[in-house]
Amino acid sequence: MSLPSKSPLPKAFGLIHQILQSSPVEGLSTKEIIKEGLKIYQIENPSYNQQSSSSSSSTSSSTLTTLIGENSIKGKGKNVLINNNKNQKGINIIPEGHPFISTSYLKSRVLATLQSQSLLIKTSQQKQHQQSSSSTSTNTGGGGGKPIFLWKLNEIKQSNLNNIPKWDFNEHWKKLINNEQSPGKLFFNLNKNKELRKKEEFERSLNNFQNKIKRNNQQILQWKDRKPFLTTILERSHLNKRRLEKRPKKERIRLNLFESVNNNGHQNIIQDTLNA
């Protein structure tokens, strides 16, 4: 099951993969991804020019000029813009036909889908404000400025298991880009693989624990005729960390005391005292 042939998602996934493969280690912001996406779109579509963008910009500029001319007031020798249309939508800088569709579509459908499938990770960095040398104002905030979010490819490390194979994320990308399977189907299969791997990892850790207990039991059998006052690690497992570290030394002291008294013929008296 795949997406409809007219869906822009496969091309958008491929464009994101192409952009982030050659991006810096720290990743790219959404604005930088859009900028790179427009560059690639222009290269792959030579007939495309920015007439639509420039016309939109000129339209917005003329609208802005009209607003300034009609709705301006004087204040400190300058014109102050008063825009009463608060519901006016922003201009879409992404051209028609581009797989990103719009900034909102890129964030909510493309990047969010890739992040949910563990293909991308989003990190935040503190944006540093740079002041010019001519500026005399000081930054009283003390912080690094507003954080910016960066996107980068997720390098996933998977453990080697006996029964459940590793998930092939390169093949995952390929199926998304070539529209061989829908994102929903791939997401379902990915989560199923994660659950099976988690179950096997738990069983492996449980087997390791049981083998450790088995080794401890063997130690107990080997210590069947051990000297009094000495215990095994398993017998001391109920102690907290501090007592567990001090117990062997304490047992040796008791044993030495027992043996020294035993040599003097007072074994029963001392043993009753120590057990009290």
TrEMBL record:
Please indicate which superkingdom the organism of origin belongs to.
Answer: Eukaryota
Recorded protein name is: Uncharacterized protein
The ranges of region (Disordered) come to 123-144
Q: Which UniProt keywords apply?
A: Coiled coil
UniProt feature, compositional bias: Low complexity: 123-139
* Coiled coil, from the record: 192-226
